Amino acid sequence: MGNAGNGEHGYRHGLQELGHGCFGYMQPDGSWGWSNAGLVVGDGASLLVDTLFDLKLTAQMLATMGPITSTAPIATLVNTHANGDHCYGNQLVERAEIIASAATAHEMAEVPPSMMAALNRAPGEVGEMFRSFFGAFDFDGIDVAMPTRTFEHRLDLDIGGREVQLIEVGPAHTAGDTIAYVPDARTVFTGDILFIGGTPIVWAGPLDNWVAACDLMLGLDIETVVPGHGPVTDKRGIVEVRDYLAFVDREAGERQAAGMDAWDAARELAAAVGAREDFRGWGEFGRIAVNVETVYRHRDPSHRTPDVIEQFRRMAMLESGPGSPGPGH
Ligand SMILES: [Zn+2]
User: Fold this and answer.
1) What letters, b where the CB count within 10 A reaches 16 and e where it falls short, cover 220-232?
2) How far is the CA of 86 from the centre of ligand 1 (A)?
3) What spacing in Å lies between the alpha carbon of 118 and ligand 1's midpoint?
4) Do 217 and 225 meet the contact criterion of CB atoms below 8 Å apart?
5) Which residues does 270 contact at the CB level (< 8 Å), separation at least 6?
6) Alpha helices in the chain (DSSP H)
7) What is this structure's pTM?
8) By CB atoms within 10 Å of each CB, which of 133, 171, 218, 231 scores lowest?
9) Crossing angle for the helix pair 235-257 and 262-274, nearest 10 degrees?
10) Interval between CA 19 and ligand 1 midpoint (Å)
11) How far is ligand 1, taken at its centre, from the CA of residue 193, in Å?
12) Residue-wise DSSP of 10-69
């Protein structure tokens, strides 16, 4: 199975010490909504990288971090991107400066938790499908605390005497993805620029910009890589994601050039991915449907991508359909 999880660290729920005052807060199995967060501890101050999808999960995480943050309070929170599983808990981090790229801050207002709450309660087929992805989460009472400081390209922070570099590498997964690099720990928190053991989903793209983000990370002096979803990894995990994106970009592009319909191309590529030793066994392989749409849209601006409900329907169909190429997850 192509899964570059770093066995040294395992993959268990909760706070995981990575050394050099860095921690990952891990949420197996890393599928839809089960994101990771990070903590960088300096002298008398900490940096939190992302909050979680709902208030209960975030409160539990902050309580777990309590013994550390009682002496090194969270002075800064960075949101790597605008998806709710990385920012919906913001309101529980009190008195912290909240930093995001300008593109992320703009995007954070677009999918209000009230919309997620309504979909989670929706009757009929749409509600049922939505709950199959997000039914485990509680979107009530969320009033997303917005960034109080934004940046573009690059921002260097001093966290209790330690340097943390925020590097904007989007648009890729979303319109404004940021990674947090801690040079003295040789550690990077990637947000959803990396999914490990699960399939990357390219909502924004272009794919070659995400490949460039992987190349940028491969050029950093790092030994520990904390993905947005899945187990802690190292540069091998970055290479796997890079290879997948390059493969999809090339294969979808060829099918588009040959005049193939995007949904037909997605079904063909789901089978092709399932046949590849290096990608076989990744969860959420139905995300190929979204990824192919994104390739088509960038190569042909007149291409119309179906609405997000239809995209979720297609992902569900690929993963449950007869002759489904994946091994299940
Ligand atoms: Zn995520």
Assistant:
1) bebebbbbbbbbb
2) 6
3) 20
4) yes
5) 285, 286, 288, 289, 318, 324, 325, 326
6) 55-69, 102-108, 113-121, 124-134, 207-218, 235-257, 262-274, 288-299, 308-320
7) 0.95
8) 218
9) 140
10) 24
11) 9
12) ---SEEEEEETTEEEEE-TT--TT---EEEEE-SS-EEEE---SSHHHHHHHHHHHHHHH
Residue 7 Cα, ligand 1 centroid: separation in angstroms?
A: 22
258 alpha carbon to ligand 1 midpoint, in Å? 33
The answer on pLDDT for 4 being more than 80 is no
35 Cα–ligand 1 center, Å: 5
> Measured in angstroms, how far is the CA atom of residue 66 from the centroid of ligand 1?
24
Single out the residue of 4, 5, 70 nearest to residue 39, CA to CA. 70
Interval between CA 191 and ligand 1 midpoint (Å):
7
Please give the Cα distance from 144 to 85 (Å, whole number).
12
Say yes or no to pLDDT of 323 above 60.
no
Give the distance (Å) from ligand 1 centre to CA of residue 261.
28
- Rounded to the nearest whole angstrom, what is the distance from the C-alpha of residue 108 to the centroid of ligand 1? 13
What order do you get walking across the sheet with 74-78 strand by strand?
A: 14-19, 22-26, 37-41, 46-49, 74-78, 97-101, 149-151
E strand or H helix at 75, and its extent? strand 74-78
Q: Stretch 197-214: mean pLDDT, rounded?
A: 98
Dihedral sign from CA coordinates of 103, 104, 105, 111? positive
CA of 257 to the centre of ligand 1 (A): 31
Quickly state the pLDDT bin for 322 (edges 50, 70, 90): low
Q: Which of 163, 172, 192, 156 is nearest to 79 (CA)?
A: 192
Taking all residues of the chain, what is their mean pLDDT, rounded to a whole number? 94
Assess contact for 269 and 256: CB atoms under 8 A. no
Distance between CA 281 and CA 283 in Å, rounded? 6
State CA 156 to chain mean position distance. Answer: 22
Cα 301 to averaged position of ligand 1 atoms, centre (Å): 27
Distance from residue 141's CA to the centre of ligand 1 (Å): 20
DSSP code string of 153-167: SEEEEEETTEEEEEE
* Strand-pair partners of 220: none
